[in-house]
Amino acid sequence: MVSSMLHPKQKTKFKSIVTRSGGIYRQGRGDPATALSKAIDKSSYTWRKPSTLAEETGLALDTVVKVLSRSSHFVKADHPADDGQPLFSTYEKLKRKNASFGLRVLNAFANKVIE
User: Fold this and answer.
1) Exposed e or buried b for every residue in 10-49, given b needs 16+ CB within 10 A?
2) What is the average pLDDT across 69-92?
3) CA quadruple 45, 28, 6, 61: dihedral positive or negative?
4) Which 3 state secondary structure label does DSSP give 89?
5) How would residue 95 be classed by pLDDT, with cut points 50, 70 and 90?
């Protein structure tokens, strides 16, 4: 019985967190890697610090660092941020950013616009 596993004051098994940036992460559901990937992809910045991603997703900093370091979906920058923290991005974000002008034109003609 699920209700017996919950704390008496807790109404549901899952807890929503509204982050400072306005994002919502629902703990207990979904994959942390997916939440991190979405946070990186929606940002105007290519490289993101783990502490910033932790704030935006509502995940614990140690969880963010573990997922970013262990998943092959994320790329670690060769250089750290000014404050010494490592920087991470996704392969998809780097691919879109580094696409050449010629490739963008060809994809536009093929109706496959790269953002």
Assistant:
1) eeeeeeeeeeeeebebebeeeebeebbbbbbeebeebbbb
2) 92
3) negative
4) strand
5) confident
